[in-house]
Amino acid sequence: MALIEVKGLKLGYENRVIIKNLNFTVNEGEYLCIVGENGSGKTTLMKTLLNLQKPMDGEIIYGDGLKKNEIGYLPQQTIVQKDFPASVREIVLSGCQARCGWRPFYSKDEKKLAEDNMERMGIKQFAKRCYRDLSGGQQQRVLLARALCATRKILLLDEPVSGLDPMVTAEMYSLIDGLNKDGITIIMISHDISAAVRYATNILHISKKIFFGTKDEYSQSDIGKLFIMRDYYERGRNRDV
Amino acid sequence: MFDNLSKIGDYLEYPFVRYALIVVVLVALCASLLGVTLVLKRFSFIGDGLSHVGFGAMAIASVANVTNQMIIIMPVTIISAVLLLRTGQNTKIKGDAAIAMISVGALAFGYLLMNIFPPSANLTGDVCSTLFGPTSLITLTMDDVILCSVISAIVVIVFLFFYRKIFAVTFDENFAAAVGTRTKAYNLLLAVIIAVVIVMGMTLVGSLMISALVIFPALSSMRLFKSFRSVTIFSVILSVCCAVIGVFIAIMVGRIPIGATIVAVDVAAFIFCWIIGLIKK
Ligand SMILES: Nc1ncnc2c1ncn2[C@@H]1O[C@H](COP(=O)(O)OP(=O)(O)O)[C@@H](O)[C@H]1O
Ligand SMILES: [Mg+2]
Fold first, then answer.
1. Interface-testing mutation among B179, B221, B224, with chain A (most A C-beta atoms within 10 A)
2. What is the model's pTM?
3. Both A135 and A99 in a single domain?
4. What are phi and psi of B151, to 5 degrees?
5. What is the CA angle B100-B101-B106, rounded to 5?
6. Can you list the residues of chain B whose pLDDT is less than 70?
7. Could you tell me which of A39, A24, A21, A33 has the C-alpha nearest to residue A190?
8. Between chains, do B231 and A128 touch, taking CB under 8 Å as contact?
9. Which ligand is nearest to the CA of A42?
10. Could you list the residue range(s) of the whole structural domain that residue A140 is in?
């Protein structure tokens, strides 16, 4: 049985429909990349998968005993976070909030989990530093460590590399790839088609026509060819400038 | 100077000065506790709106001439807090405008009410002390002190119990909701605590001043400290110190309102912290 199965999903705000008749599945261990233009509804879809908002129609089935508090999430950065006084440790620990339930403090195990995940993301030396003083790449690692405290099974990442320079972007991708190899299912929103084709196992392309399939199917499809070509062309042009 | 210090010693002999000090410290403590969250969640508008609503509620209470005004003020303010929270987060109608409407409306309504049914012969004095706090604190009784202590204890215990969740919901509401934390319930809890603190402080420093006690220590502390915990702890310490200094200044100078003096000290502390923050950079 699939980890997440989406059937006939229709998304939108008030009366405006953004995506309709969306079908796809995510199995354990897969790496799904969601691509599409700005404003095509990728974030909306992810929020719906997380139960943060209701679909207009259709259903999402969570299989394999996936409980709501077993999903890790890395949101698109918001402005409030940027000047927030919080230490790295405080933020990573908050990933354990679902585990501790009504308990008013974090247990030894939860603190250990936070330390381990900081180690895993290579940010242990920043534990006492202020989040807002870190570089963009370091901040994303902090949020990734927090997400890892919330899950062992599945991570949902909303544009984890936006605003990062190419070096840091490459590091971030290989970090995520490593997590996937460790057995964590990944659903990632990305602008970057070449990275999507390189790392993902499956691709969901949201535009007027929706594509869902493996990355090889995507590379062979008309829509895939078009976007990969365009991406390639744009990269070439950016390099020339 | 020494004259003045011994004057403070003399004043401490009076029970009402001791009561005032206790109440001031408790109000300053509770007000600053939630300041950080309020500022960071952009909830400052609730504090501001509520202080106006509080004025309206206080007007109703003094006109109704009930023995314990809290019976009216507390529920009205709490309900308003919940309503303000709802409207402030509603994207469809412009939240800011709705809040301005509610708060100015409450002010006008309260002022009208006090004009039509004057609670005492000195209307201007009544209005002024409701808005800016009483000029002297002789009116505080032992009962006030006990009530204030009980409310403070509840506020502090609730805050400590939910501290980790409050941090999580303040830092990143989306993440918190995604991992199953009941963010709506916590926002509601925050709004209710803010309402309680505002009502508690209102009789002391006046309805217009109380939001300053909530916001200023947090803003000052955020200039200097880098973790949520240290910011919270320092803003509580700063707030209590400013309040005590304010009370003593008010006593030493004499005939100046305590509420405004405390706020002035808070402003001075903010400027001080701001400059230190700049130097540290
Ligand atoms: N809270 C909201 N209310 C109304 N419309 C929204 C809201 N959030 C996003 N939208 C609209 O939904 C569309 C999809 O947005 P989004 O999911 O953020 O796109 P993406 O993440 O693919 O860039 C956009 O046209 C946006 O204007
Ligand atoms: Mg988006």
1. B179
2. 0.89
3. yes
4. -60, -45
5. 100
6. 1-5, 88-96, 136-138
7. A33
8. no
9. 1
10. 77-150
